[in-house]
Amino acid sequence: MAIKIFLLLVFFAVMVGIGIYSRKHATNVNDFVLGGREVGPWLTAFAFGTSYFSSVVFVGYAGQFGWKYGLSSTWIGLGNAFIGSLLAWLVLGRRTRVMTQWLDAKTMPEYFGSRFHSKALRIAGSIIAFIFLVPYTASIYNGLSRLFGMAFDIDYKVCIIVMALLTGVYVIVGGYMATAWNDFIQGIIMLFGICAVIGAVLSGKGGFLNALKELSVISADDVAVPALQGGQGLLTSFFGPDPLNLLGVIILTSLGTWGLPQMVHKFYAIKDEKAVKTGTIISTFFAIIISGGCYFLGGFGRLFDCPAIYNADGSIAYDSIVPQMLSTLPDILIGIVIVLVLSASMSTLSSLVLTSSSTLTLDFLKESVAKNMSDKTQLIVMRVLVAGFIILSVVLALNPPMFIAQLMGVSWGALAGAFLAPFMYGLYSKKITKAAVWASYIVGVGITVSNMFFKFIASPINAGAIAMIAGLIVVPLVSLVTPKLEKEYVDEIFKCYDETVTVHVSHSLKD
Question: What domains are defined for the chain?
Answer without folding.
Answer: 2-401 (1.20.1730.10)
